[in-house]
Design a protein that fits this description.
Keywords: Transferase. One of its GO terms (molecular function) is transferase activity. This is CoA transferase. This protein has 2 domains: about 200 residues, Rossmann fold; about 70 residues, no CATH class. It contains 14 helices and 11 strands. The strands form 3 sheets. Strands 3-2-1-4-5-6 form a 6-stranded parallel beta sheet, with helices on both faces. Strand 2, helix 2 and strand 3 form a beta-alpha-beta unit. The radius of gyration is 25 Å and the shape is elongated.
Length: about 375
């Protein structure tokens, strides 16, 4: 990767001991911003994501250098500490206590490099009653109250389609690492970052869950339940998203469909307060309206109108979408071997693309 000369990360070196999503995604973000990332894996098995398929591993590790070290052996530990001497940060995703048992905890790392930053990403953090508990994304969401916040008139518990808590933690880890490395370079003193995936998603869910307590007996009354801000099925089995919040958009919906559906002009529904008072009636009306047409018909009906309407895109349509193509977020790999994503922020000074190579187990 040709480094962006303006980036404060252009000469930062990070050792990545982590596996699966949170740690590798965090280090990928920093790599895209100019850092060099060396991925250290267990010989023979490597990152668990390798067992989930080549595309899964590549998604979070493309562009990194790879090295296989047995951290349980004396030679492996010595080689690892030699890497630490010339690095800015180490990222690990073991359960609390594992690095200490290996003799490679923060005290051991800082003994050879006082400026080293150790970022430990774990499910529940380095302390607390759940610290040693096993967990994955669904567990952290469940224990952080993700499903405690009423969200729909016809509410239901269903799993998210992406690893929400893992991505939340990886973003916080990357931000904290950038700040800690900058601080260490200025003051010569590193630190230990304790990133809890549960803490990360709790920071997203806590406010909504706090407010939801007042509506525990009648979830439908919660202000987070908007009858006109929801997903609606269409006649052809597809779905659309209607994101009405401001009242001007309700009026625009009435202008678009009111001739055929006069109930949209009911004075009881003319204000946000009125629609909240008659949530079930408003939602049932919209549900019936949208079931009366195909998704294509609704796209035609709303074309050119200032409405927060979107088709729920299926996978092929997503990659054919003109806005997705115009923004250039996605890089296609040769021979249809998958995709690579660019960093999701555009810098006016430019940000070079990261490397496309996927490191083999054992090194490049």
């Amino acid at each position: 990767m040709e480094k962006a000369e303006w980036s404060c990360l252009k000469d930062v070196k990070i050792i990545d001991l982590s596996q699966l999503l949170p740690g590798p995604h965090a280090t990928t973000l920093l790599m895209q911003l100019g850092a060099e990332v060396v991925k250290v894996e267990q010989p023979g098995t490597g990152d668990t994501s390798r067992q989930l398929g080549a595309a899964v591993f590549a998604q979070f590790n493309r562009g990194k250098r790879a090295l296989a070290l047995d951290l349980k052996s004396a030679q492996g530990k010595a080689d690892f500490l030699a890497l630490v001497r010339g690095a800015d940060a180490v990222v690990e995703g073991f359960r609390p206590g594992v690095l200490r048992r290996l003799g490679l905890d923060y005290a051991a790392l800082s003994a050879v490099n006082p400026a080293i930053v150790l970022c430990s990403i774990s499910g529940f953090g380095q302390d607390g009653p759940y610290a040693d508990h096993a967990g994955h994304d669904l567990n952290y969401l469940a224990l952080a109250g993700y499903w405690s916040v009423p969200a729909q008139v016809e509410d239901k518990v269903s799993r998210p389609r992406t690893r929400v808590s893992d991505y939340a933690a990886s973003g916080y880890a990357a931000l904290a690492l950038a700040v800690a490395v900058m601080s260490a370079r200025r003051h010569g003193r590193g630190q230990h970052l304790d990133v809890s995936i549960h803490d990360a998603i709790l920071s997203w869910t806590a406010h909504g869950a706090w407010a939801a307590r007042a509506h525990a007996d009648k979830p439908l009354d919660a202000p987070s339940v908007l009858p006109d801000n929801d997903l609606f099925a269409t006649r052809d089995g597809r779905w659309l998203a209607l994101g009405i919040l401001e009242n001007k958009f309700w009026l625009a919906l009435g202008e678009a469909l009111g001739a055929a559906h006069p109930a949209l002009h009911d004075p009881r529904f003319a204000t946000r307060a009125g629609r909240m008072r008659y949530k079930e009636e408003v939602h049932a009306m919209l549900k019936g309206i949208f079931l009366g047409g195909t998704l294509a018909e609704w796209e035609a009906a709303f074309a050119g109108r200032d409405l927060p309407f979107s088709p729920v895109l299926e996978a092929q349509a997503l990659f054919d979408d003109p806005h997705v193509q115009a923004r250039g977020m996605i890089r296609s790999l040769p021979e249809e071997k998958g995709i690579a994503l660019r960093f999701p922020v555009k810098f006016s000074l430019g940000l070079p693309d990261s490397g496309m190579e996927v490191p083999p187990l054992g090194g490049t």
